[in-house]
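Deliverable D4.2, example record:
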Amino acid sequence: MASILVLHGPNLNLLGSREPEVYGRDTLEAINTRLALRAAAAGHELLAFQSNAEHALVERVQATRADGTAIVLVNPAAFTHTSVALRDAFAAVRTPFIEVHLSNPHAREPFRHHSYLSDLAVGVVCGFGAHSY
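Output generated by the structure prediction step:
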């Protein structure tokens, strides 16, 4: 059994009501429930954590060093384009991660085109709404 961590960045707690034309109508709770059911069906454990605070996400990434997390699915949201701290946390712990985005940042405003995480990630999935997870 693998332990999978799903990290959700800032404003993702507003999914379902925040710009549904961009992010879809699924709530964060619905996404987490579907992911947990799929993980359990495959014999894995899934833990989900959301925070609007960069330091809380960094601390959770750092905890993966010792808590048995096999892989992280991370939707860093706006921290994708700004957080050297989150990047440094992933580099320090070396826990493999996949970067996930509900929308396609490359099809949006130019400031969203750069990610501080993509080059460290095992892979990047974007643009498929809740199915990106």
